Amino acid sequence: MLWWVSLILAWTPTASAAPCCAQAGSVPSLITGDERISIGASLSNGSVIGDAPAAGGGLPVFRDALSTRESRSVLLLNAATLIDGDRLQAGVSVPLQWNRIGTGSRNSSRVAAGDVSLTLGHETLPEWDYSFWKPRGFSFVQLTLPTGRSILESSEALAGDVTGLGHVAISAGFIALKRWSLWDASALIRLGRVFGREFDTGISTRSAWSGAFSFGGGVSFAERFRFGGTLGLDALSAQAVSGGGLDSAGAGRLVWTAGANLSWLRGDDDTLILGYADQTLFGPAYNASLARTFSLSVMHRIER
Q: What is the pLDDT of residues 125-176, one digit of tens each?
């Protein structure tokens, strides 16, 4: 059973930035192994330790003891199932977010839903026969719904109630996977559109483009363990904002996320994954809060 394939994508280096920059993770909920149903849950906790301004050459400014304290915990539930018995599939990701923000004597702690994502995937490049170079490939379309709260509709001075982009977004992409004996590699590319919206506050936004690219690899050892690493880039073009006393052309966002994960196959159908993600190791970065995040994930598979 190719359980290792699912491990590459089971732990997602989600962009754990400040609540004002909250957004869905880069990797969609997909079956990439030989199962027919995949059910998973992950719990992550990240702390913002620096900020990359919109200008300044992409150099981050790290926070000190007097800076705003920000952390975020996310419970992410995801599931995917084959819908034609073979290569077509559908998935869903549902996040619940807990924000903690403090500055001076003021503090905010809020728990609320994040942005729900729906995925339609297809095994476009199946691996019927072994090839040294040809990967296994999956194409996908992902729809993100604004079930979380945007910074533009926040009702708090510290914006502790912000848990999402607040916009409908759609993206399409491709994931390639390959294994050589104990070693494996993966790559993801996606391009999307974040649609404009007029909020109840009287503020309106224009549409923007989004994009992401990531690659990674790992090695299996002791029969049931795997250690892997990833490096990913997430980008969002400038999004103009007007109304409510605001009139801005906006600024693009760029952030790199490096990650490491250790996986343990428990039995034949369950996997535990410990993960770490760091947005301060690679650059340049623009218009983003930079976090370090630890995560624990569990995944259960039901075979075909």
A: 998 888 889 999 999 999 999 999 998 888 888 888 899 999 999 999 999 9
Q: Provide the token pair at 70.
A: 């920000």
Q: Please name every residue paired with 37 in a beta bridge, in sequence order, or none if there are none.
A: 81, 302
Long-range CB pairs of 63-68, under 8 A, 24+ apart, other chains included? 67/103, 68/101, 68/102, 68/103, 68/158
Find the distance separating the first CA and the last CA of the chain, reported in whole Å. Answer: 11
Question: Which DSSP symbol is given to 133?
Answer: S
Q: Which amino acid does the sequence have at 125? A: L
274 membership: H or E segment, kind and range: strand 270-278
| 250 residue type, one letter | G
Amino acid, res. 229: G
What letter does residue 286 receive in the DSSP assignment? Answer: B
**Phi–psi pair at 167, nearest 5 degrees:** -130, 150
pLDDT at residue number 304: 83
Among 12, 278, 253, residue whose Cα is nearest residue 151: 253
φ/ψ of 152, rounded to 5, equals -80, -5
For residue range 29-86, what is the model confidence (pLDDT) as tens digits? 899 988 999 999 999 999 999 999 887 666 788 988 778 899 999 999 999 999 988 8
User: For residue 170, what are its two tokens?
Assistant: 């759609």
Three-state secondary-structure class, residue 54 = coil
Q: Which residues pair with 234 in a beta bridge?
A: 212, 255
CB atoms within 10 A of CB 80: 24
Amino acid, single-letter form, for residue 153: E
Closest CA to 236 of 158, 167, 163, 138: 167
CB 99 within 8 A of CB 19: yes
Could you tell me if 38 and 92 are in contact, meaning their C-beta atoms sit under 8 angstroms apart?
no
